Amino acid sequence: MERLKIITNIIISIFIGLLITSCEDASENANNLMYGNERSELAIKINNTIERIESKIDELENRLDNANKETAEKINDQLEKLKNRRKDLRADLRDLNEESDDTWENFKSDVEQAIDDTEEWVNNIDIDFNNNAESINKE
Questions:
Q1: Residue 137: per-residue pLDDT
Q2: Neighbours of 3 (CB within 10 A)
Q3: pTM of the model
């Protein structure tokens, strides 16, 4: 009888251990699924912003040919900044899948802020150069 209690307790302990392990695995799988979708969405946002930067670089390089010296300096300054931002976003894209669940929310927040800042900045480049369109052309 004593042996039966010991064996029953062992079986129950094993069952509980397996149950806890499977619950932890299910929780981890749910997190991976949730964060996987967020990672995919963020990757799309990063790629869209990189494409926007590349488009702006092309546009500014085309304007450079017809710019006076002062405007050319401004354009070159903006080009350098755009290329650096593109480089940073590409690094974020590479790091995206390596972020742990513990650091994911901070990483995501930082990258989304960088994307928002970049979009606003690129829009302001448009405004600055469109407001001063006459300075784009050589005098």
A1: 37
A2: 7
A3: 0.69
Q: Domain boundaries in the chain?
A: 42-136
Residue type, 126: D
Tens digits of residue pLDDT in 73-132: 999 999 999 999 999 999 999 999 888 888 999 999 999 999 999 999 888 886 666 655
pLDDT tens digits, residue range 45-86?
A: 999 999 999 999 999 999 888 888 988 999 999 999 999 999
Burial class (CB in 10 A: 0-12, 13-18, 19+), 118: buried
> Would you list the DSSP string of 69-112?
HHHHHHHHHHHHHHHHHHHHHHHHHHHGGG--HHHHHHHHHHHH
Q: How far is CA 78 from the centre of its chain?
A: 22
Query: 99: which 2 tokens?
Result: 């972020």
Using CA atoms, how far apart are residues 69 and 79, in angstroms rounded to an integer? 15
Enumerate residues 6+ apart whose C-beta is below 8 A from 54: 86
Give the list of residues 6+ apart from residue 77 with CB closer than 8 angstroms, or none. none
- Looking up tokens 């790629």 gives 47
